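step=encode ok
step=design start
structure_in=
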C-alpha cells in the first residue's frame, strides 16, 4: 500500500472512517458471498428444477439483449454475476454502517445475514415475481437459505473487522 494511502486510512476522521468501512465491508461481502455460495452447493436452497432469482434476472436480460437464453453450461456463472456484486454492495453498506467500530461482533453479523434473508427471499423476491411465496417453499429449504445467509453475515463481519483493523493499524 502506498504511504499516502496508509496515512489516509490511519487517520481518525469521518472520511477515513468511511473509506475504511466501505473497503472492509466490500471485501467482507465478497468473502461472505463465497461462503454462502459454497453452503448452497451442499444444502438445497430451492426445490428441484427451480431456477434461482438471480438466474431468472440474468436470463431475462440475455433474452432481451441477444434473443437467447443462458445456456445450461453458463447458468452457474450467470448466477454469480448477480451474487458477487450484490453481496459486495451489501457488505459495503454494512461496512459503512459499522465504520466507527473496529471490533468484531459475530452476533451483529448473524443478525445482518438473517435480515438480508428476510429482506430478499422472504419479501422482495416474491413480491417481484422472482421467487415463490414463502408459504409455498418447504421449511427445510427456507432453513437452508437462512443458514447460508447467516453464514454470509458472520463471514462478512469477521472479514470486515479484520480488514478494518488492518487498515487502521
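sequence_out=
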Amino acid at each position: 500500500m502506498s504511504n499516502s494511502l496508509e496515512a489516509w486510512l490511519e487517520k481518525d476522521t469521518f472520511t477515513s472512517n468511511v473509506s475504511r468501512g466501505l473497503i472492509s465491508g466490500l471485501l467482507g461481502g465478497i468473502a461472505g458471498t463465497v461462503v454462502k455460495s459454497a453452503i448452497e452447493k451442499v444444502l438445497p436452497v430451492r426445490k428441484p428444477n427451480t431456477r434461482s432469482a438471480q438466474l431468472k434476472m440474468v436470463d431475462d436480460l440475455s433474452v432481451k439483449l441477444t434473443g437467447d437464453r443462458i445456456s445450461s453450461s453458463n447458468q452457474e456463472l450467470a448466477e454469480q454475476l448477480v451474487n458477487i456484486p450484490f453481496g459486495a454492495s451489501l457488505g459495503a453498506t454494512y461496512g459503512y454502517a459499522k465504520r466507527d467500530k473496529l471490533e468484531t461482533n459475530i452476533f451483529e453479523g448473524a443478525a445482518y445475514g438473517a435480515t438480508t434473508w428476510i429482506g430478499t427471499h422472504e419479501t422482495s423476491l416474491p413480491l417481484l415475481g422472482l421467487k415463490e411465496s414463502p408459504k409455498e417453499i418447504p421449511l427445510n429449504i427456507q432453513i437452508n437459505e437462512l443458514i447460508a445467509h447467516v453464514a454470509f453475515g458472520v463471514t462478512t463481519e469477521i472479514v470486515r473487522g479484520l480488514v478494518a483493523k488492518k487498515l487502521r493499524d
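step=design ok
step=annotate ok -> The two ends are 12 Å apart (CA to CA).
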